[in-house]
Amino acid sequence: MKNCPQCGKAANDSEKFCALCGATFSEYGNAPVNGVYAYQNAGPYGNAPLTKAATKQEFLKLDGNKKIRKELNSSAILCYVCAGITLILMYVFIGNVYSLIDVALLIGLGLGIHLKQSKVCAVALCSYAAVNMLYCLIVLRIFGGYLILIAGIYSVIYTFKLDKLWKQYQQDLPYRN
Q1: What is residue 113's three-state secondary structure?
Q2: Average of per-residue pLDDT across 44-58
Q3: β-pairing, 10-11 with 2-3?
Q4: Phi then psi dihedrals of residue 96, to 5 deg
């Protein structure tokens, strides 16, 4: 058994890389294995490639960003659920054709948050949710649209948090393309 020089995690002697942070095991510290620096722990980001900068999508997949990835996916799924509820209640049962615009908008914003982690889509979803909730309260006299608002708030929080970490990662990255 040996310990990782970067994070201290115990590992088998046959392993070449740390399973937690991705640091290489070598007699000479964090030296390249077969001439290639594989990964090094880059602080709170998890596994970050040393040979080139990660794209934003690769950065999101790093171990340190699991919580953000989970929260953004949850926000997008909540958008899809709200779109399904709107489709069933407003279009199928009531026959309101204009509700299809709401469904398309929710699905589009959910996809922007889910696939691109877009801050613009997150802010747009939050704004749309506030307007939708006011419409439900004033015109329909019901308390509705709050699930969309919850999805919007979470997506705004976590897209901005991701963007802050992404900018910090780019500043901390020792090697750039």
Answers
A1: helix
A2: 58
A3: antiparallel
A4: -80, 105
